[in-house]
Amino acid sequence: MSVSLDQKIAEFYDASSELWEKIWGEHMHHGYYGRSGNYKINRRQAQIDLIEELLIWAKIKTVENLIDVGCGIGGSTLYLAEKFNAKATGITLSPVQASRATERAKNANLQETVLFQVADAQNMPFPDNNFDLVWSLESGEHMPDKTQFLQECYRVLKPGGTFIFATWCHRSTNSLAGELTPDEKRHLEEIYRVYCLPGVISLPEYETIAFDCGFKDIYSDDWSMAVAPFWDVVIDSALDIQAILGLLKSGWTTIEGALSLGLMSRGYQRGLIRFGLLCGKKD
């Protein structure tokens, strides 16, 4: 990853993570509202449900040693470590997130088995064949080289291990809808700018990359309808006075991100933004 993009991503999450945790909790990802998106449930429960639904979808029964790539403040990492009584490692570009995640591990008495560190997901500081689960929940969109990222996930995965990947995508361009329109491209560029993204690709493109990297038993799914309500829920909660005061203290990048929540909501409504899932094994 380029230094400038690394810095932008780190600074974005350094500035916004404390407010997100205070207002929205430890899980910095979408929630799951049923396959059709019509479940009326608490947002934090919906985020936990997303983790559980992903585990069911990927047929995960046991885990011994996992890595959470793009761990945030450790929401998924700690949840999975406790659920499976597993060793876990979380990596992020944000020193603030790594520090807070480490603090949360200590508070949960998991500091001996769960470790967090600042590291580049495209050049992970771990040996080959190290983890039996590589978990990446909404971090792929930040990766400038999607192929290198999936190659690294494959490299650190143990033979027989599972890769679970959920990420923001744009709609497929190999259907009747055709190539992205100029207006769709402008919409995406605004999302990229606000959320420090180098760009997203379609789910079929990820499937091709995963196959070329060596993953076996690959299957994928589109859960866009299931997660789309999340953004409207976050928009509503951002109007709370506590959230507004927190935003004012967090700086312009966080404020702009909050003001731009509608970009994602409208992206889902028009079918441009997709929530793509991919699972694969290593022989």
TrEMBL record:
Q: Which GO terms describe its biological process?
A: methylation
What ranges does the record give for the region SAM motif III, renumbered to this chain?
Answer: 156-165
Q: Which InterPro entries match?
A: Erg6_SMT_methyltransf (IPR050447), Methyltransf_11 (IPR013216), PiNMT-like (IPR025774), SAM-dependent_MTases_sf (IPR029063)
Known Pfam families for this protein? Methyltransf_11
The protein's matches in PROSITE patterns, at most eight in alphabetical order, are given as: SAM_GTMT (PS51581)
Chain positions covered by the region annotation SAM motif II: 129-137
Q: Does the keyword Methyltransferase apply?
A: yes
Instruction: Spell out the residue ranges making up region: SAM motif I.
Output: 66-75
Identification of the protein by name: Methyltransferase type 11
| Species of the source | Rippkaea orientalis (strain PCC 8801 / RF-1)
